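Annex B. Sample input.
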Amino acid sequence: RLAEAEIEGNDIVFNRAQNDARVHGPGRIEVLVDRDLEGRALETSQRLSVRWREAMHFDGQLATFLGEIETALADGVMKCHRMDVTLNRRISFSDDEPQTHDPEIAHIHCQDGVTLEYHAFGEPSPGERPVVVGFRRLGVAEFSLDQSTRDFSAQGPGTVEDWQRGSGRRRVSLSPQNVSRANEGVESDKLKWSYTWLKFTGDLSGNQHDRYVVLKDRVQVIHGPVEHALVPI
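Annex B, continued. Sample output.
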């Protein structure tokens, strides 16, 4: 345990001379970071928590996790079966006092059954708790994120689900001629959430700062109003 980092497990091998840390079997690591899983700057530093089932290897800059991984930070959760996390600089274990302050995640790469979930909260009223105004879920075979450029890519087949409170902010715009009047449901102004579902079989790419995404190969889209968050069409 250090000031900004902590490793926990039943079998830990720590080699200062080789700058190498390994955990055999299940374990947990926590690191204080300044950016969330989407690469956005946090108002205050928060702990990135990673749990795994099989093994972990960390050489001071690259950490590899194996088996039922769950990563939690701020309002995001990421799950997969293999994950590589690269820091922006190497931490030296051989120093008498390792400099663990202010590390940042440079790159994240996840494989095998990847799911990502994000919550968005609105400004709370005085004396009340923050209200969830958005929820996004992504399921893909492989996912990569560059924290410096905020470019991301994924390998399908995959699905994206997005819920937004209110009808003013729509992820997908459909022209009137593309809407079947006979298939319309209840009036959207009576429903508090908008829902978007996308399915693709190829690749996905985009940039979180510029707020765009490109999906390829047999893309399907469903968009419309729903009564509650997490309720699909």
